[in-house]
Fold:
Amino acid sequence: MNITSLKWWFNNYKKPLFCALLCSLVCIFTLALYQMRSAPFGELVLDLEVTSDDVGQLFYSTDGRYSEESSTRFDIYTGRHKYKIPFKHANYLRLDPGSLPFGEVKLYSLSILSGDVTHVFFVNELKNIIRPVQSMMMQTPTLDAVVLSIQGEDPYLEIKTSVLFGEYLTEYHVWLTTFVLIFAFFGAGICLIKKYREGQGWLFPGYKEYLFYVLILFFICNMISAMTPSHQSPDEFAHIDRAYYLSQGQWNLEVQDGVVGGYVDPQLWQYQESFRNIIWKKDRKITAENMQRAESLSWSQNRHFQHHEETAPYMFAIYIPQALAFKLGQELNISIHESYLMARFFNLLAVCLLILVAFSMVPPNMMLLSILFLPMMLFQFSSATVDAVSVALSLLVCSVFVRASEKPGQVPLLIMVLMNVAIVVIVTSRMYMLPIMLLPVLLAIRSKKKVDFLMLVISFLLVFLWITQGWVHSPGIESRVGLSRGEVAVYYLINPADFIHVMTNTFSTFGSFYLSSFIGNLGWLDTKFDDYFYKVSACFLLLASLLSISWRDIKRQKMVSASLIFVACASVALIFIALLTGWTKHPAVLIDGVQGRYFTIPLLLLAYSLSGPTKSPFNEKIVISHLLLIIWVAFMSYSTINLLLVRFYLA
Structure:
């Protein structure tokens, strides 16, 4: 390689190189500070009052894993006494105030002697550095002491040495460091993909205009996430459990004694219980005491098998962003609440990156953008459930399909791999989207490339294996329906009039609910807007659809539009068929379980069918569309935030 080629390579890839260098420096800096955080030796002084004589134990660790070898035992006496306990090489401290499953502990002060530096903490500071981990609950503090009640076997608490040896590193800088790390990795990836696709002609002219909407989406969803309590999206408890299982290496559900479930940290149970009592109860609000109790919980080393709630056991890949956050939270020893917030952030970051890639291939029309900024979408993007990732992956698949249809046989291998991976993840987490597998089939037929057919076979095989072998069914489903899925399907094939009757009853009964829950029934579908809001939103969506139609693109790519419409309609039909055969009690009068948000992906496919990959010329229609979209985004954001404030905080 000569100097000229090196110079060309550097000029074309200097941005990815800079991002990679920045990422490396951040990693080195973080590891160095993390090592500096370890105290070489020290002494813990406790001013403690207990209700019975016992033997206490102080554990110290550099990695969050405690052992008897790295601990000090000391006698505890009834009443108030001071105890001096030595320790060494500690990033983490755990205190066991005895072994009795009952009693009360009062901590008046805590002092840490580390080298020549002494840190003394009293009541106000103690509340911030103590985390009851197991069988202990923090009570209302007195004027001079923090009060903890013992409520079970093996009680212990953790002392946040991050506060003692550099809080700003472990509590705040870890968030900044994580953000910079992710930004650097994604920045490098975007630059590389951009360079690759520019050479292939895969970026449409003027695509940067639409990056504005991705940034707006990112910031609005972060605001909504900051003000929404944990686990307030439908079925979020089950989704968080699945993400936690994956963070522990359990990629699928298990069956033990006929019970479907997995191994969960009991501290995560307690954290979830703090928010379970407000779902479906509009009169209950989040209180400061409730939040303080939840934020004080941290990860433990215990795992217990628990029953998994009756939600479809989706393939593990859809939970990767949340699982990475939980794994990182446990490794950094941050609280469960902070780990949960990180899971939301990782999920949103992955979604925005996927949407960014999709928009770089095909410009979004007004209908598509209007759907993305609906309250239901903003709320789901801000949660840690799987809806957001499945929607973003669907946008990516549609963009690749529409763009590739312009250049059959010229699709880069990287793009086709990306499309097939996305389809496998979508179909194994949204079974009603099975018709979307038709899109890569059409591309492979037109390209006639062997590698495209090979990827198709692999994709179909993975989906087939998951449905037949990987899908763990809940034992209660068949008893709920009364028959197996096959028997119900055969019944309605033989009696099509009954099927039509059930569908007619369902739409006449739930039609308005489908519309409202598509636009935005927030929380666990218990937080609704006023009726006028849904009417105004429906009218705007209709207007956005009309302004999105490009007859030139539809005529030029008739097969593309027809394919997307067919997939969308078939997916909607499968939604009802799946819940009729696998959820509704037989014989059915109405189909149970269908929600409006299930129609989001099919409607996004319809949006892609209205216009193609070419950028429309600048005209009055474009100006009006952007002005209306800006007003729409402002109105949707304000309405969503206002409704959430009233629902969760205002009496």
Notes: The radius of gyration is 28 Å. Residues 30-40, 163-175 have pLDDT under 50 and may be disordered.
